[in-house]
Amino acid sequence: MDKLYYETNDLLQKVQIDLGRLEAAQNEQDAQIIVQYIYSDLKGLTENSRILDDYVSREPPARRQMARMKVDQLKSDVQRVELAVSGVHTKMTHKWRAASERDELLKQRFRPNDTALSIGDHELQMNDRLHTSHNHLDDLINQGSAVLDSLRSQHMNLRGVRRKILDVGQALGLSNSTLQVIDRRVREDWLIFVIGCIFCILFMYFFYRFWKG
């Protein structure tokens, strides 16, 4: 189990490095190659996580709690990377699509024997600016959705971690006062999670109202 755990960690780090390469890609062809590698590695991470779950269930009771916490943390990291990959891929797709549409419009408006664009090209420039603004708004909405998905994932992890911490504490023979302190800290983390959700929702709502005028 330990060998597979460390191999999965290494694969996760590779995906994070490839994600940085994707963001720095200068053209769509290079980006698509990197995306294929990333999604192939994500499949491997998902499969490894499933196998690790099976291994945890076979661990001796004395090691099972600690093994479960390690695997759950790894699965949480995988989920966050998947969300990040989805957000970056969506952003890059919008970027290349906008560039392709802009090139197509320029080809339609440009006259081969002219040295300058016609007066009507001012409308094209305005259209490009509006298109860019809409893309920025789409990116913001996608990022907000990714943040909310991440917060929801963290909420599920917090609930699971709280239960596991209390179970481990009882197994170690901690006093009730110590367990109460731990439980209070976990509840405070839950409150921070709720406040973060509310803040994100309000920000997206007011920004949308401001954008629409």
UniProtKB/TrEMBL annotation:
GO terms for biological process: protein transport; vesicle fusion. It is found in: Golgi apparatus, cis-Golgi network membrane. The chain crosses the membrane at residues 190-208. GO terms for molecular function: SNAP receptor activity; SNARE binding. Signal peptide: none annotated. Keywords: Golgi apparatus, Membrane, Protein transport, Transmembrane, Transmembrane helix, Transport. The keyword tRNA processing does not apply. It is a single-pass type IV membrane protein. It holds the Pfam family V-SNARE_C. GO terms for cellular component: endoplasmic reticulum membrane; ER to Golgi transport vesicle membrane; Golgi apparatus; late endosome membrane; SNARE complex. SUPFAM superfamilies: SNARE fusion complex. It comes from the Eukaryota. Involved in transport of proteins from the cis/medial-Golgi to the trans-Golgi network. Belongs to the GOSR2 family. This is Uncharacterized protein. The lineage of its organism: Eukaryota, Metazoa, Ecdysozoa, Nematoda, Chromadorea.
